[in-house]
Amino acid sequence: MSLSYKEMHQTLMEELRLYHYPVAVKFFFDDEELATFKEKAEFYVPVKPMTFCQWELAARMKGQTVLATREDLGCSNALVSFGWKDIDDNEIKSHMKYVRSIEQAEKFVRSKPRLDMGSVKAIAVGPLGDAIVAPSVVHFYCDNMQSYHLAVDYMAAMDQHPLRTNVTMNSSACGGTVFSFLEKTANMLPACSGSYNAGKTERGEINFMIPGEHIEATVERLLERKRNLGSSAITRPGDGFPGADVCKNCPLIIFKKGESPACAACDN
Fold first, then answer.
1. What single string gives the DSSP state of each residue in 101-166?
2. Model confidence over 162-217: pLDDT tens digits?
3. Taking the model in full, what pTM does it have?
4. Of 157, 164, 165, which Cα lies nearest the Cα of 8?
5. How far is CA 128 from CA 45, 174, 196, 214, in A?
6. Peptide bond preceding 242: is omega within 30 degrees of 0, i.e. cis?
């Protein structure tokens, strides 16, 4: 790996002007790997059961690494997504407000991406720059323009076009991350009702997920673009991102440096 996770984190924060830290999500399937992580990492644990996207609050806003297990998760949707709970009647009924019938609710719930039942021992979420093991997925909470830049760099880096994303009902952070991990592709989707109404996406952030094994190639593509174009901005190459959020060829939104009367007098 030519770039460290700390270097990737710093590049993404600086070049994309991210408000939130990129979150390294790690699914632990192996007891030995989990034990090694516990020995080497500085981590926090939830005091009470809460949602997966609330675990990520500590990572993306406080810079803390959280290690949690099934007993720490108080969200039925995430329990299903991570293979920690099977689909039951209550899970299906909880989706009735979104759909036209109970049959459609069951169809939609069963079509969500899920990890194998009981396969995950624990899950860690933390800032990408603090990762001590390869992340399963890197999860960004970002705005529209930042997500566009991530998508463009990802597609160029992975030679993948168009980028087909996976939007699910009531499981954006958890289900969206699982989809990215299982399908080995980036994913972009809006906040679901649970994460938005709970105040965890207070600025209308968009979810963007990149498989852990693809994050370095994506960041390297961003840096390549910066070297070739003078900045990381796609909308207006040469400007610092987000630069001028207008078409690069717009003849109307242009500014020039002003000159004070005092300076003009000095020149004379």
1. SHHHHHHHHHTS--PPTT---EEEEEEGGG-SS--SEEEEEE-HHHHHHHHHHHHHHHT--S----
2. 999 999 999 999 999 999 999 999 999 998 877 666 556 667 799 999 999 999 99
3. 0.91
4. 157
5. 18, 18, 23, 13
6. yes
